[in-house]
Protein: High-affinity glucose transporter of the major facilitator superfamily
Organism: Cyberlindnera jadinii
Amino acid sequence: MSNIFSPVKRFFGKYYSTEGAPPEIFNRTLYIACFVFGILGCARGYDEGYIGGLVVKEPFIERFGLNNPDATAEQLADLASNITSMVLVGSIGGSLLAMVLVDRFGRIRTLQGVCIGWIIAVVIQITSQSVGQLHVGRLFEGFCVGQTVVIGPCYLSEISPKNIRGLTNCIFAGAVYVGSFLSNFINYGCAVNMDPDSDQQWIVPTAFKIVLAGLLFIGSLFCYESPRWLVKRGRVERSALMLSKIRHLPTDHAYVQSEIHDIQAQLALEEEARGKYTLLGIFKELFLVKSVRYRILLALTAQILGQWSFAGSITVYMPDLVGLVGVQGNDRLLYSCFLGVVKFTSAYISAFFIIDYFGRKRALYLGITVQLLSTLFFAIYMIIVPNGGEEGSTVSDSARRASYAALAALYMSGVGWTMGWNSIQYLINAEMLPLGVRNIGTAMIMAWHYIHQYSTTKAMPSMLITITPGGTFFMGSAMLLMGLFWAWFFLPEISGRSLESMEELFDLPWYLIGRKGAQLCPDRSDIAQLKDNDIVDAESKEDDIVERTESRDNSSTEHRETVDLEKAVASEKK
């Protein structure tokens, strides 16, 4: 088994700084956990990718009344958008529910409950005979999917070595597009290979979610609970044991002991400053403690700027958007598949080669710039050629060539999104919040995320009509321009820092955190100061301490025995 993972170890050694990290910590246990909780991102990505293609299929339209002759065009559009966005509505509640479940039952058990609930939700949908039952199934699915964006990033941040924490979180972010990629191709495959009038056209893509949920449940059986959650619950010995298994090091190893010490010290510091954590105390810390409030506002602003760049809406409405540049019929589904491939590929290129290697800020700069230029080009094209996608319309050769570039711009906007906002929106939440409030803080942020994703998904069809496609994408460009300034001024570079070292960084004045925080506050945690030679020295010191302790104990025992013997002799003489 170790031979299978040796190329992965060599990869980390070549592209990532592993100074001070024992080679044993990069092991199959870590890789399996990162795969299971990383691929959890498929849950939301699959629905985002397939629902846009589902609502244009004739059997689905007929079953759920999307062709009702008694309804107006606005009413039918509203019904379609309700079906499309119902999972997002449920996800708002799901992410808030996760802040209780994840903290009470742990990451593993909550994931297993999500998988079971997800299967039940899918069964409700595929047996639907009315749009009401479909809404219930999709709403319940949203409650499950919404929890995944709290469980996955929290767990991955807590078990990953700091050297590759960005990579492991981006596996989750990239898995969104693995799900999108799969769902788009399953949709397209059903469209071209099945009876176009059969309900299997929409039942098969929906039922495939059961396979995903089953695989995630089985995978969770091979993972260990988060050591940081166990420390928070007061189970320190169990935490050391779990960390030992995840790191493939003995519990008394200096690296394991240093990591446990950092976790305990940070939690003790938080509890001493704010008292034992109650729900009211957690909310007070989130909004009344200056350094934590800054982090919350930072994450909430990132969700607004990212979602209103319309990247998520482009994924959902890709079949309609490619129609604006002249693509018709089943080719709209095929071109949506290509978007899934592009985002999937660029997400993992970013995960493996950009986010940790170049840092969070540079990755975001690059991603926003690519997305801004692409979105701006598409907006300009739609202003110059507003009717290029209408059937029977005639366009010039130059406009036709420009339509190919506009289509490419949609794909390039996806590349920019996966490099920038998509990587950051999950990663920084789980990285920068203190352990005591991490679950609830992340849950609140992701609920905010879903509120704005729902808003953009619901708003885009109307915006394309009222302010035209060009105006819609100009608005997205303006948000991206604001995002560049936000990243420069407010966002600190936290790549390579231990989770326990964030407090000092965010205690700086607010106007210095983003621009100079990394330079003014380097990582001073125990685990950051531990070098390879320190590990050897620490281990030898531990041996010396053990030897001295044993020697002292033996001497004490001999002394006590001598004293007892003298007392006994004196007693006999008396």
User: Anything to note?
Assistant: Residues 73-126 form the longest helix (54 residues).
